[in-house]
Structures are given as structure tokens and as C-alpha cells.
Write a structure and sequence with these properties.
It contains four helices and 13 strands. The longest helix is centred in the last third of the chain and has 18 residues, at 138-155. The strands form three sheets. Strands 1, 2, 3, 4, 7, 8, 9, 12 and 13 form a nine-stranded antiparallel beta sheet that branches. The protein has helices spanning 11-23, 117-123, 138-155, 167-175, and strands spanning 4-7, 26-30, 41-42, 56-61, 69-74, 84-89, 94-97, 100-101, 106-114, 158-160, 163-165, 180-182, 185-187. The protein has one domain. Helix 1 runs antiparallel to helix 3 (138-155). It is an alpha+beta fold and 196 residues long. Helices cover 24% and strands 29% of the residues.
């Protein structure tokens, strides 16, 4: 299964990134560039930006498909000081996003996922700039994604429903008394009518 939602916080993210590089299967790109900058590829864990751009990544399985497409998005004049940014796109890229703590009362899921060949083929006529999905080795994409997900699961010290909980996240959950899972994460207070 390509998708994995898991709980991670601070040091857990560093451990996940280390696993990404240790596996030796991926080229690592930021999902969205900084404003008025090109997309960056990160070749070591030390290069991964500590800001928002290092928390939303696109992983290219080496040898499994063409280089990512850097799609330029131009901003409307006068909306901000920036004029453009780039987004990293490709049919067989694996998304790796960090959720982490959101304020003192919520821990959001971190997440991995990727397209299937069937979904990519269905969308190909609409997104022609991404090329032919047949150019991707889908079995290699799925295999690498599964290996990453297994590495993340092995780091877990607990599980909430089907979501692995990594060590630092477990500490955050205990300290903030996060007991209610809804929306995109775990919360300290319930929604109306919810029981723990």
C-alpha cells in the first residue's frame, strides 16, 4: 500500500529523513520552491532546509522515471513582493510530508503517498506536461515506497489505530494529553459528541 499516515514530531522527522538517505533509493526534492527561487534538490540530510520547504518533499526513485517537472507558478502583480515559485511534479514521485505539532493542542499526521499507474494514466490527458505515465517503472516506485514505509513503521513505539507513532511524537502525545483523533491528526479536545 503506497500511503502511510504516521505521527512524528521534531527529532522523529530527522530520523525519517535519515532513513530516506540511508535507503539509497531516492533523489530528494522540495515540493515547492522558496519564492523567487528555483527548486532545490537535497543530496544530504544536512542540505534539507529546516524551514517549511524541508518538510514537504518529493522523492524520485533513482532509475524509475524521468526527472521531475519544475512547474513555474507566477504570482499576480501586487499580491506580494515575490513574483514566482516552482512546484515539483512527476507521475511517479513519492510525496513525503511532515505534519508535526500544530500549536500546543494538536499533532498532525505526517504522510507518504504516490500515484498508481492506473490513476496516472487516467489523468494523463489532462496533465500533458507531465509526459507519458508509461515512462515510469511503477513496480520500482511501489517497491521503494513500501521499503520507506516499512522503515518508518520500524521506528514506531506505538500505534494509534493504523497510524504508527514515532518516539518523539509519543512524548508530545503524552505531555499534551492528545487523545482525540479526527481531521488530520490528534487533538487534546474532542469535537462535539465525540468520546475518547
Amino acid at each position: 500500500m503506497p500511503n502511510l499516515d504516521f505521527y512524528a514530531a521534531e527529532d522523529d522527522w530527522s530520523a525519517v529523513l535519515q532513513a530516506v538517505f540511508d535507503l539509497g533509493l531516492f533523489r530528494v526534492f522540495e515540493s515547492d520552491s522558496r519564492h523567487d527561487h528555483e527548486l532545490r534538490e537535497f543530496r544530504t540530510i544536512d542540505e534539507v532546509a529546516p524551514d517549511h520547504h524541508g518538510q514537504h518533499l518529493q522523492l524520485l526513485v533513482v532509475g524509475a522515471g524521468p526527472d521531475p517537472v519544475a512547474k513555474r507558478i507566477d504570482f499576480l502583480p501586487g499580491v506580494s513582493d515575490a513574483t514566482f515559485r516552482y512546484t515539483c511534479e512527476g507521475w511517479g514521485l513519492i510525496q513525503l510530508h511532515y505534519g508535526g505539532a500544530f500549536g500546543a493542542h494538536e499533532l498532525r499526521w505526517s504522510h507518504t503517498n504516490h500515484n498508481s499507474e492506473k490513476r496516472a494514466s487516467a489523468w494523463a490527458p489532462t496533465l500533458r506536461h507531465l509526459g507519458d505515465p508509461a515512462a515510469w517503472d511503477w513496480s520500482a516506485v511501489t517497491s521503494a515506497s513500501s521499503r520507506l514505509n516499512r522503515a518508518i513503521r520500524r521506528m514506531a513505539v506505538d500505534k494509534i489505530r493504523s497510524h504508527p507513532v514515532l518516539p518523539h511524537a509519543a512524548q508530545v502525545i503524552a505531555e499534551a494529553s492528545l487523545r482525540y483523533e479526527y481531521g488530520i491528526g490528534l487533538h487534546s479536545t474532542p469535537v462535539s459528541g465525540m468520546t475518547p
